[in-house]
């Protein structure tokens, strides 16, 4: 298998997914599998779900055409089919959390039993770690975790599909460089299937992927990361997937930590995701998504640089010039991350300060409050803000 095969697999998946999405949307409307506008969502009109079935069609058709149907691929495709069905049932009937988790475990178990397993990995600058009897359970845990990470991030038009497209394309490049060509083709067709769906899902979306799509993309990305990176002894093996998928990982980690802090169930939906917070401070859906795309691209670029920039040799000796280049790229990715956090936190301060001023003097006009907050932000001079009492 070659890069040309990957390109053709990408185009095949893209075409099938793009053509199948309107058909799936009509099917969802016919049977009432529609997402109604709700308080925690950002949609303004009833929108059909089940877009994940179109993504599945693109991935399966392309895989059957461009990949050899060995045991591991059979397991990946079977697991993909199972999780798409479970997700579709959840879209239609809103399954209880334990049932959804059981479906995710069952779907992830299929590729694991087919050989999609991380048996060892290399810690950068340390040593190789053998997992032994923990290999299968930890791999399954990782696949289920990634399904939920992508599922949690799917809350705004085009976000999950776009981030998964960027991530899968990055994994394809890394896999081919590591001579994991089959995984590179699988990553390419995953990117194509997600992008084909994105044509219909970018704001204003005409269809949502639903749990059938977000869980499916999480499973496929997990299998791609295992086959294309984690099964190798390269230093990028462990770090690469963490960097490439940092945006959904950080988003999920933030919201789950906050739910636990306030003693809420970790799987309960809320409005504290990055996209919700950006929306609350006045960003449009498109601007929100483009910011998060840009953040993902910056981190994906860093992951590629970790693989391709010759900053050290195999003996651990560093090249000064290339190390400075890597430091610059790392600072750029860090700057993008800090900027997003700054944007979110500065506006969080604005909202808190506006509420405080309004409580202190209810007769103050909105214009006066906004002007005062703007002045305080610009000058950095303001009274200490005290949190609410018990």
Poorly predicted runs of 5 or more residues? 384-390
Give the fraction of residues assigned to helices.
over 70%
Structural class: mainly alpha
> Tally of extended strands?
4
Give the helix tally. 14
> What is the residue-mean pLDDT, rounded to a whole number?
85
The best one-word shape is: globular
Ends apart, CA distance between termini: 63 Å
> Approximately how much beta-strand content do the residues carry?
under 5%
Order of helices and strands: HEEHHHEEHHHHHHHHHH
Strand order of the largest sheet: 1-2
Biggest β-sheet, characterized? 2 strands, antiparallel
What does this entry look like structurally?
It is a single chain. The protein has 390 residues and is an all-alpha fold. The chain has a domain at 3-245. 71% of the residues lie in helices and 3% in strands. The protein contains 14 helices and four strands. It has helices at 3-30, 51-66, 71-93, 97-113, 135-153, 159-177, 181-201, 210-230, 236-244, 246-261, 274-280, 285-308, 320-360, 366-379, and strands at residues 34-35, 47-48, 120-122, 128-130. Strand 3 (120-122) and strand 4 form a beta hairpin. It is globular.
Descriptive tags:
390 residues; mainly alpha; two-stranded antiparallel ribbon; 14 helices; 71% helix; disordered C terminus
Would you kindly provide a brief summary of this structure?
By secondary structure, the chain is mainly alpha-helical. The chain is built from 14 helices and 4 strands.
